[in-house]
Amino acid sequence: MNPTVGIAVILTVLQAAHCQMIKDLSACLLGQNLRLDCRYENKTNNPLTYEFSITKDNRKHVIHSSISVSENIYRGRANVTMHKNLVCLHLQSFTTSDEGVYMCELRATNDYTGNQMRNITVIKDKLEKCAGFSLLIQNTSWLLLLLLSLPLLQAVDFVSL
């Protein structure tokens, strides 16, 4: 086999095999609710599966997942939103009994590198409030509409009758 062709094949396989990677996992309080932001880099259009869990008392508890079944205690309190390169867990009515080591686990379909995992220790008294800017990231459609409409608003001459 030609060495150049061999190198090209290896590079193609390595690029295809490493499709996504978790870049950051952060936690903040939004009122009385916990928000976990799991940011990732995705190099494929393959579907992404996720699982958020907590380890307490040396036992893993599934909070919300597209991979396995969530535990009853979290079903009514947890939901997940997905945006480009961001999976957010929202846990309502966060209390000190919800403290522990939280894990975000992601896997892209046909990603042969296995699951990507990241942990963060969450203690209620040490959590910061979610920043206003990060709230804008969650729903940027209204912000984009506002920015795009500014020139139009400037061009309209409001005349009182």
Automatic annotation (TrEMBL):
All copies of domain Ig-like, residue ranges: 3-121
One term of GO molecular function: GTPase activator activity
Topology of the protein relative to the lipid bilayer: Lipid-anchor; GPI-anchor
Keywords annotated in UniProt: Cell membrane, Disulfide bond, Glycoprotein, GPI-anchor, Immunoglobulin domain, Lipoprotein, Membrane, Pyrrolidone carboxylic acid, Signal
Pfam families: V-set
Principal location class: membrane
Signal peptide location: 1-19
Any single GO CC term annotated in Swiss-Prot or TrEMBL for this entry: dendrite
Domain of life, per lineage: Eukaryota
GO biological process: cell adhesion; integrin-mediated signaling pathway; positive regulation of focal adhesion assembly; regulation of cell migration
Keyword Membrane tagged: yes
Database matches in InterPro entries: Ig-like_dom (IPR007110), Ig-like_dom_sf (IPR036179), Ig-like_fold (IPR013783), Ig_V-set (IPR013106), THY1 (IPR033292)
Function summary: May play a role in cell-cell or cell-ligand interactions during synaptogenesis and other events in the brain.
Protein name: Thy-1 membrane glycoprotein
Source species of the chain: Campylorhamphus procurvoides
Gene: Thy1
